[in-house]
Amino acid sequence: MMKKLLKLVVLEASYFKRTLIVIFIILTTFGAAFMAVVSLMLDTPQGTLAGIDSSKKYYCDLYGGECLALEAKSQTVDIARQYSAELCYGTLKGITFDADLQHGTSSFPTDIVVTLGSGAHKLEYRVERHGYFVPVEFASRLQFLFLTGDDCGVWLCSEIAEELDVNEGETVSLGEKQLKVLGIFDKEGVIHNYDVEETVLPAAWFYVVDSASSVVFDELYFTYAHSQAIFGSWQRSGRQLGLSDVLTQWHDDIALVQTYYGYLAILLGALVLFLLYALFTLFFRARKPQICRFELMGATGATVALIYIVIALALIVCATVLASAVSVLLSKYLLNVYTRLFNVVYPYSFRVWLPLSFLGVSVLVTSVSFALLKKRIERLPVAQEVRYE
Amino acid sequence: MISIKGLTKKYVTGKTDFFALNGINLEIADGEFLAITGKSGSGKSTLLNIIGTLDEPTSGTVTVDGVDISALKSKAVAAYRNKTVGFVFQSFYLEPSYTVYDNVELPLILAGKVGNNREKVEAALEMVGLKHKSAEKARTLSGGEQQRVAIARAIVNEPSYILADEPCGNLDTVNSDNVMKILCNLNASGKTVIMVTHDAEDAFKARRIVTISDGKVVNDEKTA
Fold first, then answer.
1. How far is B214 from chain A (nearest CA, A)?
2. Does the predicted TM-score (pTM) go above 0.90?
3. ipTM above 0.85, yes or no
4. Are B101 and B134 in contact (CB under 8 A)?
């Protein structure tokens, strides 16, 4: 029975090969598009700043659909770009906002919340575009706030300022980079002598480093401070977390999501195609009574159905594998290529036009495919039209 | 033996009824070579289709070897098409991308015979003189050759009845003669051949000619 079925499947598949290729393309395109969409929709809102909790699981939070810019202008450009391209797909660049640092309030309207760390170590910043930059839970652990851009500079914790023997307005050397000390804050996170009206923070890129000895922030620190050029002299004790470790963990999580949704998408797509095929067949049979050519030679309806189910399953498996590969390729490499080509990190707009272009292609391919399928089915399983002459 | 009693087939076209077959009564003995003739639209193909279970009668019965085929369940219908009758059509209905061998083997596979089919397939192809082309794709053959492959496919399961609907309709004279010779040989080997044709010359190669007009048998004669 198995041999018989396989033989029929192979015969039938070879007969239908062009149609099957079309269906395969549809499934693959749909699958890859769906996976890309899901991946981007799920992942891109996870924004500019990453947190690593004690289980080393990467996460970051973002509400409002936008996040802060990562713009690599310093000598950490390569690391930053790689990091942002790999970890932070959804980034905006060039947001300029007025900044104010206050303590202990969360009443400002916000576009964005970026959460670092977890639990008791959480530092949460609420950022309103063209609005305020407010540390909500401004813990004593904050040491410095680093900014690049036109007004490149750094806020320092008073302890650090003392250690470096610098005052507000002076220049501090961080590796090879000279940074102006824009402000100094105390352990409570209060910045003294800070003129809100005059200071505009380009905030193209910022770092927050916590000096507490918690594992959480040690890891976070070393993740962000991977570039020894700037942070080398300030590097705190703690385990150095390799970037590759983070990336691997993160990609594993995403790959799982991609595969899961990809399977669902392809299964649904296959089901829809199968139903459409059945409807087409029934439709044409209803209009012109026809006998499938296998039935003509003695196949039962169940045998014919089984043949098509096996073919459909084979298609689904193959399409899933290919779509997964395409999706991974896109998410992992294409974005990096894009980043390197255009010298910017994965832009916000990418989140929109990549899925849209995918969907556009899918719709186009599907339309053409169904047109071809319809034509094919019309003249396909017909062995004999039974009607009066 | 095939026994047809009171067979009617009605089509509803708009508000009017059209009787493709209107009270056909016919007995076809085993081993006969019967030609069914008539003008276009007379109902001859409809009759053949009903005998082959490709269509269902509106009323009346068709009994084949004592079994009323219109009362068969789908599985039994499949078995009937697979083992009792073999079809030959004007348009061949081969699988163009299959090889000649695969085309002829198909009814055997559908009958559950997988594996040792070569002998039967080659015997069928030998019968129609195409054994040497068994590895070729069906689409590469001429019309006459394709029809011979279709005949080989029809006989590979050794059915008792060959149902041929205008088997020479798409063929030139030489190929028509070849096909008719094959059908005559099959009949001579004991098969019952029922052939629909509008070609008088082909019809006269049968041993009995039934003429249908407006869904009724208007003439039933033996040939010399």
1. 11
2. no
3. no
4. yes
